[in-house]
């Protein structure tokens, strides 16, 4: 179930996609582990990777929608696949691709045909892009920007101001920059425009991180913004910023999956071939438990992320369910990635610090993903907006199939106004749980989910508690687990995982972890200072032990054990 370069065959895609994905894997493998590690340690800019991508037309093929070039498409399924591959080899390679996606967001949403054509040409020439939104003082708070555009009297502007934490800002052929007019107050003054990092009025200040990637601070000084450089104005500029993040935020989940997969091969191989106190490390019960838990959580990450792709690709003005599953991929999948790395690190211990391992890099880089494109707290607060309708007001939708068709996901660039989240409806979450009720831990988790609904109906957060974000975020964690489990179950069913006894064992092991996680968050809720006596009593009453099954655990462990020696990167 894990990506393995030795056996990788993306047969689910069309021939051009298969060729590019396989060529990417082959490039990294032929380059070898030593080069991967040396450039990471030396913080060397990944010019060789960008040269490869330009030569193959990789970014141009995957990131040009058909509206800009009818021979290309923006296909979230294959974008997710490449996220995983790039994450597998290193966060930096994924990052330059990710911020190119963000930089293109305002462009592909724009009706400015000249800039769209310019962006398509730059991609075809091998350039990368950048997304100039955040600032040192305000972060990504788009209500407050100090990038000021002053009318030049000829229909254009001059832009002055700084942007901070802007990936690819050192080399981007096009930078989508967010600012505000000096002569217009409020939202109508917002402007998104296209800038070029090679322009003399564009001043690169520094790389703000100590890493291989270049995360820039840049400053514009009287930068000329022609009328033909303007992408969006007013409320449309604000919406373009949020909708771009909607598209780009999704990519963090599959990058996290790729990082964890590579690290798992290293960790299991090391542990399984190491002898301590006269015993193989993997003979210790606690080691087996931790590695089995890590494996189950990683499989769940893959299942949820893959199913979320289908909802993105099926989205429409009438079906905006993706707007819940998107912050879930960003918040939940990436924090699960941290848990997976921590579980393995507990096993391999000092080995996880060694410079010649991939794991050493994974342990550092996995921390970044939950903190990019909005913090965990921001995304949890966003998830809470959907809770009422999701749990209590299901609507009828046609079943969403697996979406691997070679079509353009055009809706992502015409999402419309970034509002109305509380009105979005969902299909009945209980159906996926009901179809898997024969699995003991799915049934046990369903008891907890039903209990959570009872909490909200009988002991709903008071007005004061709703203003207490510390309390409310724990409610969000409990709710997120129910959403997470639903899509894990749907994808397991669609991929045939539950059709076999062995697949059912893995799924039950996943819900063993979710039962424990729900109990842990219920315990946290019990301890909050603002929790009422009734809510505290509910919390203790809904702590559950997962259903133990030694035979099931042994079968899942056999899958983990088989990873030993299954993959090692070429020297």
UniProtKB/TrEMBL annotation:
Gene3D superfamilies membership: Butyryl-CoA Dehydrogenase, subunit A, domain 2, Butyryl-CoA Dehydrogenase, subunit A, domain 3
Domain Acyl-CoA dehydrogenase/oxidase C-terminal span(s) in chain numbering: 238-386
InterPro entries assigned to the protein according to its UniProt record, in alphabetical order: Acyl-CoA_Oxase/DH_mid-dom_sf, AcylCo_DH-like_C, AcylCo_DH/oxidase_C, AcylCoA_DH/oxidase_NM_dom_sf
Coiled-coil residue spans: none
One Pfam family recorded for the sequence: Acyl-CoA_dh_1
PANTHER family membership: ACYL-COA DEHYDROGENASE, ACYL-COA DEHYDROGENASE FADE4-RELATED
Identification of the protein by name: Acyl-CoA/acyl-ACP dehydrogenase
